[in-house]
Amino acid sequence: MIEKLHSSWKKVLSEEISKPYFEALEKSIDEEYKLHTCFPKKEDLFAAFNFTPLDKVKVVIIGQDPYHGIGQANGLCFSVNPDIAPPPSLINIFKELNQDLAVPIPNNGDLSRWAKQGVLLLNATLTVRAHEAGSHQKKGWETFTDQVIKSISDEKENVIFLLWGGFAKKKAKLIDSEKHPVLMSGHPSPLSANRGYWLGNKHFSQVNEILKGLGEDKIEW
């Protein structure tokens, strides 16, 4: 499993992936994929890291776990494969993007174009059993991805963290906010968005303003 992880991440996470819990996690996930239909496809499990090597990370968006419907998950949080209809949370992301920056609503929900520009689309749990939301939580993924967040915070400066919703906001304690801008809002899920906690946060324009101030290329959302 770990051989599919980009070398830039292997280097900074070498101590983490050598720990006993990670070895047990690998065995557990391998067994899950043998016995059950799981998502994303195994070759896409580390897609977030492989699209966005450590040295390219400019923005981090944190999700909880992959979509569990057939064909949806592609290894990037909030993203779906091009031939899959965007789920409600992603539709609300696109609505905010349209309101904030007048970006036309895309014709598909594949966010790999963001990832290629330095947006790490990180789920806290990287796998899930089909039709069983949260089924791979508390197996060790959260320990691993917490270390990913800490490593970014420690190794880099001026990475913009977007924490959407209660779950993501809890990750703020892992981030040195004196080194990194942290933007928080409600979650883009319909429940949160319809209560006014998502639409109007202007995170996308804020990210580009911060990047401009740093002399970095803006994200073509």
UniProtKB/TrEMBL annotation:
Keyword field contains Ligase: no
Any one GO BP annotation for this protein: base-excision repair, AP site formation via deaminated base removal
Domain (Uracil-DNA glycosylase-like): residue spans on this chain: 50-211
GO terms under cellular component: cytoplasm
Keyword Hydrolase recorded: yes
Subcellular location: Cytoplasm
GO function terms (MF aspect): uracil DNA N-glycosylase activity
Key words, A-Z: Cytoplasm, DNA damage, DNA repair, Glycosidase, Hydrolase
InterPro entries: UDG_fam1 (IPR002043), Ura-DNA_Glyclase_AS (IPR018085), Uracil-DNA_glycosylase-like (IPR005122), Uracil-DNA_glycosylase-like_sf (IPR036895)
Record field: catalytic activity: Hydrolyzes single-stranded DNA or mismatched double-stranded DNA and polynucleotides, releasing free uracil
SUPFAM superfamilies: Uracil-DNA glycosylase-like
Catalytic residue positions: 65
EC numbers for this chain: 3.2.2.27
Family indicated by similarity: Belongs to the uracil-DNA glycosylase (UDG) superfamily. UNG family.
Function: Excises uracil residues from the DNA which can arise as a result of misincorporation of dUMP residues by DNA polymerase or due to deamination of cytosine.
HAMAP family (UniProt xref): UDG
Name used for this protein in its record: Uracil-DNA glycosylase
Native source organism of the sequence: Brumimicrobium glaciale
Taxonomic lineage from the root: Bacteria, Pseudomonadati, Bacteroidota, Flavobacteriia, Flavobacteriales
